[in-house]
Amino acid sequence: MSGSIYGKMFTISTFGESHGAAVGVVVDGVTPGLELTVADIQRELDRRRPGQSSVTTPRREPDAVSILSGVFKNKTTGAPIMLLVNNSDVRSKDYSALQRLFRPGHADFTYVKKYGIRDYRGGGRSSGRETVARVAAGAIAKKLLAARQIQIRAYTTRIGNIACQKYLPDAIEKNAVRACDPDCAADMEKLVLEMAAAGNSVGGIVECRINGVPPGIGEPVFDKLDAELAKAMMSLGGIKGIEFGAGFKAATMTGKEHNDEITCQGFVTNNAGGILGGISNGAEIVFRVAVKPTSSIALSQHTIDVDGNPVVCETRGRHDPCLCPRVVPVVEAMSAIVLIDLIKQQAALSA
Amino acid sequence: MSGSIYGKMFTISTFGESHGAAVGVVVDGVTPGLELTVADIQRELDRRRPGQSSVTTPRREPDAVSILSGVFKNKTTGAPIMLLVNNSDVRSKDYSALQRLFRPGHADFTYVKKYGIRDYRGGGRSSGRETVARVAAGAIAKKLLAARQIQIRAYTTRIGNIACQKYLPDAIEKNAVRACDPDCAADMEKLVLEMAAAGNSVGGIVECRINGVPPGIGEPVFDKLDAELAKAMMSLGGIKGIEFGAGFKAATMTGKEHNDEITCQGFVTNNAGGILGGISNGAEIVFRVAVKPTSSIALSQHTIDVDGNPVVCETRGRHDPCLCPRVVPVVEAMSAIVLIDLIKQQAALSA
Amino acid sequence: MSGSIYGKMFTISTFGESHGAAVGVVVDGVTPGLELTVADIQRELDRRRPGQSSVTTPRREPDAVSILSGVFKNKTTGAPIMLLVNNSDVRSKDYSALQRLFRPGHADFTYVKKYGIRDYRGGGRSSGRETVARVAAGAIAKKLLAARQIQIRAYTTRIGNIACQKYLPDAIEKNAVRACDPDCAADMEKLVLEMAAAGNSVGGIVECRINGVPPGIGEPVFDKLDAELAKAMMSLGGIKGIEFGAGFKAATMTGKEHNDEITCQGFVTNNAGGILGGISNGAEIVFRVAVKPTSSIALSQHTIDVDGNPVVCETRGRHDPCLCPRVVPVVEAMSAIVLIDLIKQQAALSA
Amino acid sequence: MSGSIYGKMFTISTFGESHGAAVGVVVDGVTPGLELTVADIQRELDRRRPGQSSVTTPRREPDAVSILSGVFKNKTTGAPIMLLVNNSDVRSKDYSALQRLFRPGHADFTYVKKYGIRDYRGGGRSSGRETVARVAAGAIAKKLLAARQIQIRAYTTRIGNIACQKYLPDAIEKNAVRACDPDCAADMEKLVLEMAAAGNSVGGIVECRINGVPPGIGEPVFDKLDAELAKAMMSLGGIKGIEFGAGFKAATMTGKEHNDEITCQGFVTNNAGGILGGISNGAEIVFRVAVKPTSSIALSQHTIDVDGNPVVCETRGRHDPCLCPRVVPVVEAMSAIVLIDLIKQQAALSA
Prior knowledge:
Four copies of one chain form a homotetramer. By secondary structure, chain A is α+β, with helices and mostly antiparallel strands. Chain A has one domain: Chorismate synthase AroC (Chorismate synthase, AroC fold, 4-Layer Sandwich). Chain A has seven helices and 18 strands. In chain A, the strands form six sheets. A five-stranded antiparallel sheet of chain A has the order 1-2-3-7-4, covered by helices on one side. The first copy, chain A, is globular, with a radius of gyration of 21 Å. The two termini of chain A are 25 Å apart. Chains in contact: A-B, A-C, A-D, B-C, B-D, C-D.
C-alpha cells in the first residue's frame, strides 16, 4: 500500500495539504461497539491545535472535526471511520514570496525532486498540519487502549540546554511547554519566546511513557514493538532520532550494568525500556525522541530558487518557535496507533 | 502480512531458529536479469560469520549459502530467490542448563508470554543468528544498488568510552572491530578482549553512510526514508536507538544553526543527514545506531525460572563480547533492503 | 491492511454508508502531473448514478463529487486524492419497518453476526452505494490508462433469458440497459420494467473487454491479473461468478480445441481471454460476471427478525429491478484500478 | 508485498521452479501450540503427487517434505514454518526441444514478455508444480480449521461432457478422478485415458463445499470471503472461472427465486452459496471452478519461436491428460488458507 497508509489490522489512511481544503483520515479496523463521539476526538485535536498558548503559532485553526462514517448512535459499527477537518485560516498569500525558492530545512527541494511538481502552499503535504489526521485517528486508538487500562503520556524533557530534572506527571498539561518538571517550565517558556522574538527557533526532547501494556505485544523480527514505534516517530516531520530505555547511553555500558535482572516482583531496572526482543515485557515502555528546531525562521538564510539561482530566504509565515509542546499529543497518538495495531495482530496470531 | 516479512516491492520473508535445522530467506521482487552467484552472497555472509576474528564468538559456522530458486544460468529470473543456510555447529547441550530460566536482557521471558511456548535452544528465533537471512537478502539488494552507483558503508565509531576521532573508510575492514579510526582500533580490541576475559560485555555505536542515492527517494508521511531505516535498524536485536544527521544534538540547536543552507553547489552542511521531509536530498545519508552490550555474559545474575522462582543465571554459551563488529554488515544489509524497496516504490509512483 | 482498502501501489481506501453523511475514497499512489478535474470524475459517477434512466431506482442522488486534496492547479501532485460525495436523498424512514428483520438476500444477518451491531439504514456499508467510491477512484485510474492507450468497455450481454447475439460497442451507452446488441435492448428494457411492476427483479450477465494492455502485466502465483480481476469483481455486492475467455465452456473442451495457437500475427483464437499464466498476452482481455437479481423486492418473503421470530418481509425502498446497467461502470472502474496497480507493480519489478 | 506472497495474518511465501532444486513455502502467523508433524503435511502432498493413479502423469516425484523451522517437539512455536520439497525426477532434457518456442496455452510467451528472460525448464515458476507449496501450507491451515470443526471437501463434478448426478462424499477418494458420483467415475476415467492415448487433454469442473464456518467470517468491501476465495482459485494455473451458489444460473433467475428465505431453522435454500455481503452466513459454502484442458498435449500445434518464426510444437513431456483429480487437493488447500486468514482477521477486528 502507498505511503500515506499505516497499520495492518488498525489501518489509517491520511490525506490533505496544509493549505488545501481539508485534512483528514479514514480509520479502518476499529473494534465495533466502542462508544465514540466528536468530543472524544476534539479533545485530542485541541491539545495539538495552533494558537492554544503563548508559545505556539498564532495561526488560528479551530480544527473542528466531523465524523462522516463508521459511527451509528455514538457507537462504532466496525466500518471505516472518516474524520474530516476543514482548513479555515488559509492565508496562501503568506507563501507567495516563497513559491519559487527552496526553504532550508524544509521538504520543498525533495518534493520537487520526487514529484516534479511544486505545491508551494505552506509545505503542502509535508507540513506539520498533516499530523491533524494522526491525532484524530490516535484519539480512537487511545479509547480502545483506555478500555484495556493502557495509558500513554508524552511530555517535554528538554528545550535547548534546559533539561528537566524531575518527573511530575500532573504538571505536564499545566505549563505551556508541556514539561514534566514544573521548575523548568518557566525558563523553557522564556527561552522559546526569546527565540521567537529573535526570529529563530530551538530544538528539544520529548519523552513518552506507556503503562499497562501486557507482556507479549510486538511481532518478532521486523515488526518489533520498538521497530514500529521508531518508524512511527521518525515519520513525524521534525524528529531526528529515537532511543528506548537506556538508549544511546547503552553504548558506554557493560552487559552486567545494562541487563535488567529479574525477581519475583518483576524487573529490577528498566534499561530495556519495557521491550525485550521487540516484545513488551510488562514493564513501563519508555522512549525519547529528538525534536529539531523549527525549520521556518525569520532570520535570513542562503538558498536557491527553482531555477538554481542563489537567493535569500526570510520566512514570514506564522510558526512555532519550538515544536515540542505540540509534538507531545502527536507522539501519544502515534504510540496509541502502533500499540492497538500490534495488540490486534497478537489476537490474530493466537486465534 | 506477518512479522517475519519486510518490504513492499522488494520483499524478504525470513525463517529459521539459531539451533534449528537451517536459517534462510525468500527474496521476492528482484529485478530480473541481474547477474547473481553464490559468491556474491557468501562474501557478505563471511563478513557477519562467527569466528572470523579475535573479538567474535568462537562458535564456528561456515554459513555456506545455497540458492534454491529464482536464478537460472547465473541470472535472476524475476522469481522468488530462496537462500538457505544450514546450521552446522549446533551444541544444544550448551543451553540445557538454561532451558528453565529467563536470561536477563534476552527475549526468553517475552517469547514465553507471547507464544505460551518455550523454545529454549539458544534464543530460537530471537537469536542474532536470524540476521543471516537479512545479510543474505541484503547482498542481492546491494548488487542492485551498486548498479545504480549507490554505496553503503557502516562501521564502528564507539565501543564503551572509546570514540573514533577520524573517518578513514579504508581502515574499516582492516581491523577486528571495524572501527573507522585505525588509531582507536587497537584500544577498542583490547577493551573487548578484557570484557570477554571478565565474563562481561560492552556496548557501542555503529554509524552508516550511504552515497549516491538520487534525490526523491522515500515516501511521504508514514513510509519516509528515515522512518523505514529506523524501523529496519530497531528491528535488529541489540539496537536501542537511532539518530540521523545532527540527531539528538539537534535538541540543543537553534533553527539558524541546524538548517542546512543551499547553494548552487548543494547543501552547505548536512545536519539533516541527507533526508528532508522523509525524502533523500542527494546529500550523503548518515545515521548512527546505539548497540547495547551483549546480553549473554558469564557473570552471575539474578533472575527467575519458568515457575517464577528466583535463580542465578550464568550463561556458558559462546558469545560475542561486543556486537558492533558483526552488526556492521547487518546494518549495511538492512539499509540496502530499505533503499531498493523505496527505489522500486518510486518507480511505481512515477509509472 | 483492513478490508476497505485495495491496491498495493495504487491504493484506494473507501468509506461511507448508504444512509450516512457521505461516501468517498482516498486514492494514494497516483502518478504526479496528471491533469485531473472534477468533471473527469463526475462523468463516470453520472454513469452509475441512480435515477438516470427508466430502469434504475427513482432514488435521486446528484452524487456531486468534491476533490479535497492531492490536486493543485488541476494537476495531481502525487499526494493522496480525497474524493467526497455527500449523501443527499436519505430517506431513512423507508427503512424503519425493516430495522428489526433480516432481509433475504441481503447482508443484514451476516453484518449483525460479524459486528454484533445493527446499522439498519439501507444496508449501511453493504449497500451498493459503496460503489460510488470505486467509480470515483476508477475515474482516475481510467485517465492514467487512457494515457497508455488502454480502453476498458463493459456492457450487458444477458438479462434473464434474453441474450445478446451481436457486439456493437457504439450501441452500449445508447440504450437504458447498456446492452451491446441494440436488437435486444428494447426487449431487455421491457423485461426489466415488467419485473419492477411485479415487485420482482431479474439477474443478468455483464461482459468486459480491455484493449491495449501490453503483454507482461500481472504478477505470477497469487497476484495474477485474472486473480486480481476476479477478486475485484467478486468484491462487488451482487456478483456470483466470473469467467475469463472460454470460461466454464473450457470444462467441455479438449486441449487441442482450447489452446490458442500462435502465428506471427498473434494469437489465432482467444480462449485464454488475453491472459496466460496470470500475465497479459497482448490480446484482448475478456471476462464475464454473473449478476444476481436484486435482493430488494416488493413481493413478500419469509424471514426472521433479530430475535429469531418468523416474520414476513416486504421491502418498500426504491431499488433497481436489474443491477446490470449500473454494474457496468463499476466493472469498468474496478478493472481500471486493478490494471493500473499491476502496471505500477511491473514498473517496480523492472526498476 | 510481492506476488508470491498471500495472506495478511496467515501469510504464505512460496518459491521454487518445476525443474529447479526445490519448491517450498514459508508459513508465517501460525497459531503457536498446534501439534504438527511431517506426516500431517505429507498426507496432503500425497493426494496431489504425480504418479498416484492411472490418470495422472507418470512423472514420479516422492515429494517428501521437510520442516526446517517453526516446529519444536512436534508443536508449532509461532515462528515461521519453512516447508521444503526437493525436486528429484527432473528430466530437463525433455524440454530441450521446447526451449526456443512458445507452447500454446502456456505462459512461456508472457513470462518472456514480463521478465525478458527465458527459463525454459518445464514452465519454471508457472508450472503446476508450484502448487506443492500451496498444498503444504494448506495442510497447516486445515489442521487449524479442523480444531474449529471446519471441513473442506473438493471433488470433480464434470470431465468433458460427463457430469456427476449424485453427491456421495465417501466415493470421492475411492476413484481415480475424484468424482463425487461413483456411477460416473469409470466413464470419466475412460475418457481421460482415451484423451491421453490420443495425445490430447480434456477440461472439467471441480466443486468445493465447506462446512462448519461460523457466520461472520469475511471482510466487507474488498476482502470479502467470496472475493478472496475467487482470487485464490483464479491464482491456480488452469482455472478459467469460478461461481458461488447458484452462480451463473443466477443470471436467469428472479429475485423471488434467488433470495434464500430464512426460518428459525436457518436458510431454506442456498443460492447464496453460504455467503451474503461477502460474509459467511453459517450455511454450507459452495463454489465451483472451471478447469481448462491441460495445455501440454502431444498433438502438433502451430506456434512461433523466440525469434517470431512459425514452428510446430509437439510437447513430449509427461503430463496429466485432465487436471481435475490433482486440482482437488489444491482447491482444498487454498480454501483453507483463505479461511484461516480471514478467521484471524476477524479475531483482530474484535480485539
